[in-house]
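Folding Task

Wanted — backbone structure
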Amino acid sequence: MAEFDSTHLLSTLPNLPGVYRMLGETGDVLYVGKARDLKKRVSSYFQKNDLSPRIRLMVGKIHAVEITVTRSESEALVLENNLIKALSPRYNILFRDDKSYPYLLLSGHDYPRLAYFRGTPQRQDNCFGPFPNSYAVRESIHILQKVFRLRTCEDSVFNNRSRPCLLHQIQRCTAPCVGVISKADYAADVNNAALFLAGKANEVLQAITVKMQHAAELMHYEEAALYRDQIKSLTAVREKQFVTSNSQADADVIAVVAAHGLLCVNLLMIRGGRHLGDRSIFPQNAQDVSTQEALTAFIAQHYTERAVPAQIVVSEQVDEPALVEMLSAQAGYAVRIQSKPTGERKTWLQMTVNNAQLAITRQVAQKTTQSARLSALQTALNLPNLQRIECFDISHTMGEATVASCVVYDLEAMQNSQYRRYNISGITPGDDYAAMRDALTRRYTKIQQTDAQRPDLILIDGGAGQLNIAKAVMDDLGITDIMLIGVAKGVERKAGMEQLISTDGQATRLSPDDPALHLIQQIRDEAHRFAITGHRARRAKARVTSSLEDIAGVGAKRRQKLLETFGGMRELKNAGVAEIAQVEGISLKLAEQIYQALR
């Protein structure tokens, strides 16, 4: 490709804020950036000699440059991050975080439900968070159940209970479903839980203490004992909480650490003065990126579609007024980014730095282990190159709800976002060979059609029969340059006793302590897990609806209404004709048909 002539481009660029896109020869976006002055910023790429190796390589591939002028630098920053998220340019540092952050939800029900939640809440619901991971949410739910005994059941179950559940018996729920607690008392518990989540534990303790003393004065000793136990539980939770704040403000603490050729960003979340946990992120395309550049990129990308706290404590100076302006405009209040904290914030930041360092140490150790395993497997199979491995497994119950899984190992790690499940139908129930044929055909036909990345090795969870099917499929597709290996469990079906079967019928058994076998087991077990979770979900869905689908006059909407009303098939089967007839859209005659069909 001829070298890009930047002279004409630079002469036409305006001295205005905006976004620029560097394009490759085929029109692919190499890099997206924003500028306060487009002419100065874009010119710097072609006039500087001190570019990093990564950016110098990118400049050498530029074939064209596109610009978009904006009204301000902060507007350019918003557009830049939207484009980075949409296009994933290969030379931008990318903080991919496919999972949304979870929240703790108190529903808008008359008797609010405590629940784990991802996504967009209903307007009447009350959400707390975000939390860095699902464990932090579930731990908080456990605490709130123990202290305030709020319900966690689905509304459909709540509406149809006739007696308290097991959670009431172990003092984790006050059983509002059957009127054991009044609406006013339950509302008070919900309010105390909300105050606790907002960091106002002292107010909650004072309120419960007053109730305990009042109950004791009235000689309601059992009630006073319950309040006493609440106080003990809440005090124990506060003592267990390592990070607490003298204020109730929300804050995010962000540290960037570079070591051992890796760059890690650790995000610690403080909400209502409580430490909710932390998350470590390793960005893509981070070669030759400074920690300051990485920090700025993370803040800009992370908060594009997430709530922004009023305080952000960081490990590096962020010299980006447009970034603060963008965050404040998005939040609707002034956002402060603090790089030299004191007091408790300094303690938080040091914790976050330590977390990032530990994450890098773990990542290095894991990469060393994975590298050794991959090298051992490559040697054992005598492969010239081994980077990408795909593994297939089949899961069903007596031929019911058959699901095939394909998991991917690449870059010395499992690549969850590239996993695929295949729902198998149109075969004889229990025919694993036909299921394997179907999954492999669908997978590699698509790969050939889209010219997607091909594996260096395909593992088939099964013996010679499944392997022969795999070979036949690949031969039919004209794919003969990928090694196929069957992983048979052996007669005793014990871990460490697996046999590796090649397409020529040779069977090899590796030593139980061989790193190559450990890698195969790791990938095979992940394929099994992914297949069986998909199978269970498909089977459960089928079993819930299958018996209703056979009833004339019960369509999808009526099935959904019945299941929502009764909370499940078991409860529906236990219902009488009169109860079924009370469901909207169900006549007495149809209720009788449903009643008889379910028996």
Notes: The chain has a mean pLDDT of 88. The domain at 7-87 is CATH 3.40.1440.10 (GIY-YIG endonuclease). The chain is about 45% helix and 20% strand.
